[in-house]
Write a structure and sequence with these properties.
Blueprint lengths: L13 H32 L4 H29 L1 H20 L4 H29 L5 H29 L4 H4 L1 H15 L14 H24 L4 H23 L13 H21 L2 H8 L4 H29 L1 H19 L8 H28 L6 H35 L10 H34 L13
Length: 486
Amino acid sequence: MPPPPPDQDGYPRKWWILVAIGLTLFMGTIDGTIVNVALPTLTRELRTDFPTVQWVVLSFLLGITIFMLSMGRLGDLIGKKRVFSAGLILFVIGSILCGLAASIYWLIAFRFVQAIGAAMTLALGVAIVVETWPARERGKAIGLSGGIISLGIVAGPALGGLILQSLSWRWIFFVNLPIGLVAWLLVLLFVPPLEPEGKRGRFDFPGALLIGLSLLAFSLALTAGQRIGFTAGPILALFALFALGLAGFVWVERRSDHPMIDLRLLQNPGFSLNLFTGFLSFVAIAGITLLLPFYLELVLKLAQRDVGLLMAVAPLVLGVLGPLSGSLSDRVGSRPVSVTGLLLLLAGYLALTRLSVQSRPLDFVLLLLPVAMGMGTFQSPNNTAIMNAAPRQRLGVASGMLSMTRTLGQISGVAVLGAFFAARLHVHSGAAVDVTSAAPAHLVAAMTDQFLLAAALIGVALAIALWRWRSERRPLPPVPSSVHPA
C-alpha cells in the first residue's frame, strides 16, 4: 500500500523518513572519518607511503564525484527511492570487499566500488528530505540531517580509535554491515517512491559521459600532480582534457531536450555562488582534516584511541550547531547565519596557527573549536539556500550538484593542499622527506603554512558572501509608471 500523499506539513511519516535517510548518511560519514584516523596504521601495516595511502581517501572521493550528477539525474527520472536503496546495498557490499582487501591496491580499488554506492545515496539524500518535508521547515530538516551526519563524524574517530586499539583495521569497514541493513529496512518501510511527475524524460548519456570523463581527468590531474609535478606533460594534458570535456558538456547540454543539468540553474546567483562558497569551505576543511591525525600521533605522540577521541570533539560541536543554525535560518534568513559561520571559520584557521610541538591536547581542542563552530553554523543555511533556489523537478540534480561540490572540494583539498603541505615540508626540512620520518618541528611549520592557506580560501568565500548579501539587500529599481504588467 503506497504511503499517503504529502500535505502542508509534508509526509505524515516525515520523521521516520529523516531517520532512514540520516542513518544512511550517518553510515557513510562513519566510514570516511574512521578511514582518516586509520591512515597512519594503514601506512605501516600495508607497507606503503603517504602519497599512496592518500588514495584510500581519494579513490572514494573520486568515484563519488564522477557519478554524483548522473545518479541525481537518474533519481529524477526513475524515482529517488529506487536509486537510493540500490546505492545503499552497493555501499554495504563495497564495505565488505574493503575489509577483505589483500593489499593497499585492492583496498583502493574496492573503495571505488564503495564510492559508486555512496554516490547513489549522497546524490539523493538531501533531495528526499527536501521533497518530503514542508518548505517552511527545510532549514530545520537539512540542519537535522547535518546533525545526524555530524554524529557519524563524531562516532567515526572514536570508534576507529577503539577498533584500531583492539582489533584489525579491517573492522573499520565491517562495521558498516549491521548499520547498512537497518538503514535499508527503514528506507523500504518509510520512504515514499517519489516517482517523477508528468512525462518522464530520457537519460542524457552523452552528457553523463562527458561530465564523468571531465571530472575524472580533473581529479587525476590534482592527485597525480603530487607525484610528478603539476607542470609535467601528462598533468597538463589531463587539465586540457578536463577543459575540453567541460566545454563539450556545456555544448551538449545546451542542445539536449533532456539535459543532465539545466544550465539556467547556474544563472541564479543564489544557487551558483552558494555552491562556490561551499566548495571553498570543503577545500579548506579537507586539507587540514587529512593532516591532524598525523599531528596528534607523530608530534604529540598520542595513542590511537586518544587521537580518535580528540578528532571527535569538533564534529560533536558541529552536530549540535547544525540543527540550530538550520532552524535559525528558517526564521532570519540564510545569509546572516552563513556569513557568521564564515567569520568563525576564518578566525578558527588563524587560531590553529598557534599549534606547536609543545601544545597539549586541551590546546588542540580549544584552537579547533572555532573551526567546528564555523562549519556547524555555515553549512545548514548555505545548503538550504542552494536547495530553495532549485525547482522541484530538478531537486535530484540540485542535490547531486551540492554533494558533488562537497566531494570535489574534498578531492581538491586533499590533493592540492596535500601537495602544498608536502612542498612546504620539503622547504622546512631542507630535503625531500616522508611525513612519517619528518622532524616534529618541521611538521608543525608546514602545517602552519597550510592553515594560513586555508584561511585565505575562507577569506575569498567570505568576500563573495558579503558581496552577495549586499546585492540581496539592495532595493529593486522602481518600475516606470508607463509600464503595466501583462
